[in-house]
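Form 7-S
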Amino acid sequence: MSPSLLSWGLTPSHSSGRRGGPGVPQLRLFGEETSRWSKRSRRYGPGGEQGGAVGVGEGVLRREVSKWLAIPLLHRASAMSRRPLSLYASPWTSPAWMKSNGDVRGKGTLKGQAGDKYHKTWANYFVKFLDEYAKHNVSFWAVTAQNEPLAALFTPPQFPTIAFTAAQQRDFVIRDLGPALTRSPHRTRLIILDDQRIHLPHWAKVVLNHFVAGWTDWNLALDLIGGPNWVKNYVDSPVIVDSSKDVFYKQPMFYHLGHFSKFIPEGSRRVGLHSSRRCLICQLEHVAVLRPDGALVLVVLNRLGWEVPFGIQDPAVGFIDAVAPANSIQTYLWRWK
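Output:
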């Protein structure tokens, strides 16, 4: 795991921003040195294998973290947030000498098997990563065991990655990563599946099952073509930056995300919602939550190309008529008397 870029998440922690932003106080950091979200790939790999012994190159890791520009940005973001930022980190790949294919790119796995010197050394990288950031007053709410462990089996050969099956990640967590984090001074949580949600039911059965799931958006901000990305895997993001003009643009998804992150703070609980449909082709999507401050929040999404009238009834408060405009998302907030 190496110095990191920012992505943002809608997982268990949310708050309101000070200046009208979407209030997403959870940031995901991933390895800039070996992820594809940078202008070039740099073969960063501290430590090595000599005479059958393996180790973490702490000096190289320390130098890389100390010069990483994300640290002052994180400090500035923390100072602006009303609530503490929840950070979590995701590794793209181990150094090449730990991988079965001898390259940070491609479909290699960690050498050997769980419990051996390679797996224990890779687990120690997580702890050293947390150690070095802690020296700069940056702590992490969680780490993920691997970025897209199954997608690694299908990505182009130039992508940096490590492939894990659910059973392999389970054994790595049980024998290596879990004990390493437990022995460390960091109270960092561990996320098992940092991949597409279609894989979650199987992984929850094989690895762990605490009945918790979250969703993470990819990048907070990208350039005009959806990069930088040295493998040309361009995507979209809530904020688009035109560095040539020193301007940025907030896209519709920026405001869409805010309907959840701005109005549903940490500690909110989803509540039951009964829907009585009179129009079979006028279906709305919705979720209701009870906030810690006692307020109720209802988010209503209309994917249809026409407006849909509907009503909201709360026995403790009363009834209101409302309309969901075509292709809209709305948030309703009220308090019980």
